[in-house]
Design brief:
With 208 residues, the chain is of the alpha/beta class. It has helices at 10-15, 44-56, 70-77, 90-100, 102-111, 121-124, 167-176, and strands spanning 3-7, 30-33, 60-63, 82-85, 115-119, 157-159, 181-183, 188-193, 196-201. Helices cover 30% and strands 19% of the residues. The strands form two sheets. It has a seven-stranded mixed sheet.
């Protein structure tokens, strides 16, 4: 069974998200991919999430996939039952995924029953494209990435970190988009079990 959890923020995973994977905490072994954080100014949020995972009793190992060979990546994830791709710069992350061949590894591991968890940028790369990373007032460094095609693990796009002031801009963008778009506030996510997509988290799902 294909299982994914695509979330807006990491705090949601600690409080609720990891539990939704259906595996007892003692049996979870998380491979925590922090590569996207190299494309932003501060890694403080990564250190905060690692501390929270440790305090909550989750077992994990951190990895930066950039520059790794397929053999090294397979060796790292051999005993992991969760891939968690952290947020940061989506373009930096997708570029590293392609260059390392991790895109093929993710698909193979997910098909074999390993759960995929993505937060923010890590959620965007599971979509058909990462074009929603270009939606917003802030101009992000694309690190030379021109092709925005992503892993296509789900048939829709996501927009994370939604706040009500984004409504007007997103309404226009969504009308122009060829894919369905699902919107997440912090504290919310989409749980995927094969072809079933369930909204989870606090409050109601935003529909525009």
């Amino acid at each position: 069974m294909k299982k994914l959890l695509l979330a807006s923020d990491g705090a949601f995973l600690i409080h609720e998200g990891y539990k939704l994977l259906g595996t007892p905490k003692a049996k979870l072994n998380i491979g925590y991919v922090t590569t996207a954080s190299k494309g932003v100014g501060s890694r403080e949020y990564v250190e905060r999430h690692k501390a929270a995972m440790t305090a909550a009793g989750y077992r994990f190992a951190e990895i930066d996939i950039e520059g790794k060979t397929k053999a090294k990546l397979y060796a790292f994830f051999r005993n992991k039952n969760v891939i968690h791709a952290e947020g940061g710069n989506t373009f930096y992350l997708l570029k590293a995924i392609r260059e390392s061949g991790f895109d093929h590894i993710i698909k193979k591991l997910v098909a074999g029953g390993v759960a995929y968890v993505g937060t923010s940028a890590g959620a965007y790369i599971a979509c058909p494209t990462i074009e929603t990373s270009t939606w917003g007032p802030k101009i992000k460094d694309r690190y030379g990435l021109e092709n925005l095609a992503a892993l296509n693990l789900v048939p829709f796009l996501l927009k994370a970190h939604y706040t009500d002031d984004l409504k007007k801009m997103l309404t226009v963008k969504i009308k122009q988009c060829k894919y369905p778009v699902r919107i997440l506030r912090d504290g919310q996510g989409i749980l995927v079990n094969d072809d079933t997509y369930t909204f989870v988290g606090e409050g109601k799902e935003v529909k525009l």
